[in-house]
Design brief:
single chain; 326 residues; alpha/beta; Rossmann fold; five-stranded parallel β-sheet; four-stranded parallel β-sheet; 9 strands; 41% helix; binds phosphoric acid mono(formamide)ester
Length: 326
């Protein structure tokens, strides 16, 4: 068990070793138990976390703010448009300055080909740890909550369990590719066989897919790519189906929407869930385009674990904050 994570950034899913992720999970379950029985756990009393958002959020903002309060500290919500960033504060200046005010800086910046570089720029200049609340490449805290949820539902030994990470149709907007990328990087380390399903134009970043394949080889797990949603679902123990934009094909939103609209039949419905294992769970990080990405029947049905998933954001994030910010 590797426990010394004080001062560490979490920007990419692989920034923490497998053993360190196991430590995070152990602490997360301990904190979940403490909250369940009303046991105070002010591990970060008098500590502060800056929450810098360049993109909207429900779960991430609320769980980080609430989590810091439960740990005895304070989180400051900072909407980037209310700052002087557009008037010239650079990533280095933000790292230097906020790193002196706060004990941690959490950032959400999902702009394609901008966000991840921004987070790393802040981290290079900051003396406080930088936590990635989602960038254009990774969504590591979502993935930690997802892993925690899968283990709660399927057991801690996930070898021979299949997760399908599938694209789904959405009409609302072109969603980031960070969630599927984080999943395919992290899940092989915990023994899961990964099937990635998407229409041809919705490929993920080749370097991320290559790294995911390398992780699968290292841990002796399966990794395959298919271009048919139902084929991907076949015998899956975990169905994780959500939309993302065709960013590697085009970064033009109008062109992207046209491509997306070709695949309106990529919806998670009861018929597709029947192709998965009988006790398969359905996962989605939310928000979902209801009855477009997934039918309400599935989303509100007995196989759906989306609310447990959302809850586990709180516990996983508190664990990382407690380990990195003391
Ligand atoms: N899943 C997730 O990150 O939700 P929000 O965008 O609401 O934070």
């Amino acid at each position: 068990m590797q426990t010394f994570l004080r001062g560490r950034d979490l920007i990419s899913d692989l920034d923490f070793s497998k053993e360190e992720v196991e430590t995070v999970l152990d602490v997360a379950w301990d904190l979940k138990r403490k909250r369940a029985v009303g046991e105070p756990h002010p591990y970060l009393r008098d500590k502060t976390l800056g929450l810098l958002f360049f993109f909207s959020s429900t779960r991430t903002r609320c769980s980080f703010e609430s989590g810091m309060a439960q740990l005895g500290g304070h989180a400051a919500f900072i909407e980037s448009r209310t700052t002087q960033i557009s008037h010239g504060d650079t990533a280095t200046e933000i790292g230097q300055i906020l790193g002196r005010y706060f004990d941690g800086i959490a950032i959400r910046h999902c702009d394609w080909r901008v966000g991840n570089g921004y987070l790393n720029g802040v981290a290079e200049a900051s003396r406080a740890p930088v936590l990635n609340m989602q960038c254009d490449v990774y969504h590591p805290f979502q993935c930690l909550a997802d892993l925690m949820t899968v283990m709660e539902k399927k057991g801690r030994d996930l070898r021979k369990k299949k997760i399908v990470v599938s694209w789904a149709y959405a009409s609302s907007y072109l969603k980031p590719i960070s969630v599927p990328q984080s999943l395919i990087l992290q899940m092989p380390r915990f023994g899961m066989d990964v099937t990635l399903a998407y229409p041809e134009e919705f490929m993920l970043m080749p370097e991320i897919v290559d790294e995911a394949k390398a992780q699968a080889r290292k841990y002796g797990t399966g990794f395959e790519i298919v271009h048919d949603m139902a084929e991907g679902f076949r015998d899956a123990d975990v169905v994780y189906a959500k939309s993302w934009g065709p960013l590697l094909t085009t970064d033009d939103p109008v062109e992207g929407k046209k491509l997306q609209d070709k695949y309106q039949d990529w919806i998670t419905d009861a018929a597709k869930m029947r192709v998965a294992a009988p006790d398969a769970i359905y996962m989605h990080p939310l928000p979902a385009d209801r009855d477009i990405e997934v039918t309400s029947e599935v989303m509100d049905g007995p196989q759906s674990v989306v609310f447990d998933q959302a809850e586990n954001r709180l516990h996983a994030q508190k664990a990382v904050m407690a380990l990195t910010m003391w």
